[in-house]
Amino acid sequence: IVLLMVLLCAVTTGWLPRWMIQTLEEQYVQVKKVDPHVHVVVVLGGGVYPVIDDPVSEVLSGTSIKRLLEGVRLYRQLPQATLILSGGGAQVQQASVGARLSELAAWFDIPEKHRVLEIESINTEDEARVLKKTLNHAPFYLVTSAVHMPRAMRLFEQQGLHPIAAPCDYVYYWKGTHQDNLYLPNAQNVAYVSGVWHEILGLIWYKLKPTKK
Predict the structure, then answer these.
(1) First-last CA distance in the chain
(2) Torsion of Cα atoms, 69 then 74 then 79 then 82, to 10°
(3) Selection from 28, 35, 64 nearest residue 138 by Cα
(4) Mapping DSSP to helix (H, G, I), strand (E, B) and coil, where does residue 44 land?
(5) What is the rounded distance in angstroms from the CA atom of residue 143 to the CA atom of residue 71?
(6) How many CA atoms lie within 13 A of 184 on its CB side?
(7) How far is C-alpha 137 from the geometric centre of its chain's CA atoms?
(8) How many CB atoms lie within 10 A of CB 57?
(9) Fewest Cβ atoms nearer than 10 Å: which of 31, 155, 191, 195?
(10) What letter does residue 25 receive in the DSSP assignment?
């Protein structure tokens, strides 16, 4: 019972989740100044509700929207850059993450000729393998959530590609006026632990399994 109580306190208060998340997020730094020699920005999708008729701003997850905004920020600083929007996961093409990201990118007046869709993949490993043909060996900015970046970088590098990490969507849950989330037990801390374990186990799994090319 004592061990269970200790474990419960560890996952419901914020000290352990914050440390785990920072361990992943701090492996790469934000891109403050772009390299003008890079001409491709890859945005990895972060989830979408597969609904066609509703507005794109409603069906894209907050994670997907934040990733797209970072991709647009980088794109704006790179003249004539290509914005690759990645993510499948829907039976209907128009409802895929990549298609919905492209639809939202159009709101920012990004020309269609500068938007490339990847809608075949169902996970990050697929995205790296499918995009290999498009990316070839040129360097590119890889945009995804900071906590997801270590796994994404490893998977793209395993394909012989040359990604430049452009992390975003940082977790600010325990900062500023929300520091009480560190010591007051709550369900959100448990959710963060679950998400981090997904990333850690994914890193271990992809390290052990043979690489698909």
Answers:
(1) 48
(2) -70
(3) 35
(4) strand
(5) 6
(6) 8
(7) 21
(8) 11
(9) 191
(10) H
43: Cβ–Cβ under 8 A, 6 or more apart, which residues? 67, 68, 70, 71, 83, 84, 85, 86, 101, 143, 144
- Give the 3-state secondary structure of 72-91: HHHHHCCCCCEEEEECCCCC
Reduced to 3 states, what is the DSSP secondary structure of residue 26? coil
Residue 213 has pLDDT above 60, yes or no: no
Phi and psi based region of residue 135 (left: phi greater than 0; alpha: psi -120 to 50; beta: remaining): alpha
Other CB atoms closer than 10 Å to residue 103's CB: what's the count? 17
Phi, psi of 156 (to 5 degrees): -70, -40
Taking the C-alpha atoms of residue 184 and residue 179, their distance in angstroms, rounded to an integer, is 9
Residue 63 one-letter amino acid: T
Reduced to 3 states (helix: H, G, I; strand: E, B; else coil), residue 96 is coil
Radius of gyration of the chain (CA): 18
| pLDDT at residue 51, as a whole number | 81
| Residue showing tokens 């004592």 | 2
Instruction: Copy the structure tokens of residue 204.
Output: 């271990």
Give the whole-angstrom CA distance, residue 140 versus residue 131. 11
Given the structure tokens 């940082």, which residue do they identify? 170
pTM of the entire predicted model? 0.90
What share of the chain has pLDDT > 70, as a percent? 97
**Residue 125: both structure tokens together:** 């490993």
The one-letter amino acid code at 115 reads: R
